[in-house]
Description:
Layout: E1 29-33, E2 38-42, E3 49-50, E4 55-64, E5 67-68, E6 70-72, E7 82-83, E8 86-88, H1 95-107, E9 109-121, E10 127-139, H2 147-151, E11 154-155, H3 170-185
Parallel strand pairs: 4-10
Antiparallel strand pairs: 1-2, 2-3, 4-5, 4-8, 6-7, 6-11, 9-10
Amino acid sequence: xxxxxxxxxxxxxxxxxxxxxxxxxxxxxxxxxxxxxxxxxxxxxxxxxxxxxxxxxxxxxxxxxxxxxxxxxxxxxxxxxxxxxxxxxxxxxxxxxxxxxxxxxxxxxxxxxxxxxxxxxxxxxxxxxxxxxxxxxxxxxxxxxxxxxxxxxxxxxxxxxxxxxxxxxxxxxxxxxxxxxxxxxx
Length: 186
């Protein structure tokens, strides 16, 4: 998909894209650090080591009356694809609080968290994804302020029109969604 002004290409902070120290502004250089001599970006001006770590994403698989809620992305990456609600955990926020907040922001629904479905990470990906089962306890789909980042949509699709989950690890997530679904229907 080509990028346009409304949907620029998605970029990530990586050791290859960081160039300047966030503390003093000096140029960073790659140097071996620690006992394992792992190459890291280091500021020669103030000595700051810029460790590029994965960000934590929290999400939920919300159920209501035996139906699974899915959200359509309206931002990159994976613009237009269906997934479960989730997003970055804010600084100072717990992972479970982030999952509750992101679900409300993206769908307009409040949920009660259930079991941990899984923790997912992939080589070269900038995130670690923590996913919980959830039961809808209130709200109205689409009434939240952000509403899937500008209106991508959220719905409880029926079996005939259930969208396929897409993106990194979608097969693993779909397997977990299926097992969660079976456990809730029994």
